[in-house]
Design brief:
Rossmann fold; six-stranded parallel beta sheet; about 35% helix; alpha/beta; about 325 residues
Length: about 325
């Protein structure tokens, strides 16, 4: 597998994984900032370029990894398909449903595969939650509350009310939509920070289940990123907490509470970016069936756009 990686933001985390992966023969990184490309070349010894066309025009490149700003995602996914390449696209897939559905249609008409980098689907604590809901392990779900709190750690991501849904909440909303489907109603309120950033509270209405999620990008830089969920079932409670950085390596604890006591559930160490890339390469080698198809993210993208629209409403 030969990979062309577009972007030196989140793409830096991907670059190291590709460089060390036994299934990847080579990777070339496109970027517009010479200093960032020099850093990648020095640290990893991979090829770099400021000419994006050279990646698309290279017949030896099998897959394009799109880590460009979100408004560019759909067009570059489709361009890669047109060039006969597989695609891994950083989340969100698009900034509107028309572009997302355009990608779904183009993918269906192609013999290439498109994957959306929904890293939360490979988080061990999230997988336990999804299985508990689907299997009824602890009886019916009654309440579910997610929270994520972050400093503004990523250059170019201001995380104001216009972007916090897409850039912070989207992964959480994907977990909820994947497990429970689209809600009957969405209510979201937010507050802007004095020096950038914002915070949001979201209530999702489902029959017989209370679901909420909160996000804050008002934390000081040393705080990093922290989050978790509290899921109350008929027969137990699952309490998850984690910390993480931009490199996708969370460290977390998941505790199960029942009437007979509490126990910490063992979670395998996880690098969610690496897990996604492993899965993508397994799919391309016909060792797995994709869990990251573009059509599988449409519900969560629509939910995220609904939340964004609510947050952008002027205060009354």
């Amino acid at each position: 597998m030969r990979v062309g990686l577009l972007g030196t933001g989140f793409g830096l985390a991907h670059a190291g994984i590709y460089h060390a992966h036994p299934d990847v023969e080579s990777v070339v990184v496109f970027g517009r900032t010479a200093s960032k490309l020099d850093q990648v070349a020095t640290e990893l010894g991979v090829a770099t370029t400021t000419d994006i066309d050279s990646i698309y025009d290279d017949p030896t490149i099998d897959m394009v990894d799109v880590c460009l700003p979100t408004p560019l995602h759909a067009d570059h996914v489709i361009r890669a398909l047109d060039c006969g390449k597989h695609v891994l696209c950083e989340l969100p897939l698009a900034t509107n449903m028309d572009d997302a559905e355009r990608v779904v249609d183009e993918c269906a008409a192609s013999d290439r595969q498109v994957f959306v980098d929904m890293t939360g689907r490979f988080d061990p604590a999230t997988e336990v939650l999804a299985a508990a809901i689907a299997d009824g392990t602890y009886g019916p779900l009654k309440t579910l509350q997610f929270g994520i709190r972050t400093a503004r750690l990523w250059e170019g991501y201001e995380l104001g009310l216009a972007s916090i849904a897409m850039d912070v909440l989207h992964g959480t909303l994907d977990t909820i939509a994947s497990a429970l489907g689209r809600p009957e109603r969405v209510t979201a309120v937010g507050v802007a920070g004095d020096a950038g950033g914002s915070a949001a509270e979201v209530l999702l209405t489902y029959p017989d289940i209370l679901v909420g999620c909160s996000a804050s990008a008002l934390m000081p830089r040393p705080y990093g990123v922290r989050g978790g969920y509290l899921a109350t079932f008929g027969d137990a409670v699952l309490d998850s907490s984690w910390t993480a950085g931009w490199d996708g390596r969370p460290a977390g604890v998941l505790t199960e509470y029942t009437d007979t006591g509490a126990r910490e559930l063992e979670l395998a160490p996880a690098n969610s970016y690496a897990a996604v890339i492993d899965h993508v390469l397994d799919c391309l080698a016909a060792r797995a069936t994709s869990r990251l198809t573009p059509d599988s993210v449409l519900d969560s993208l629509q939910l995220t756009l609904d939340v964004r629209a609510d947050l952008e409403q002027p205060a009354v």
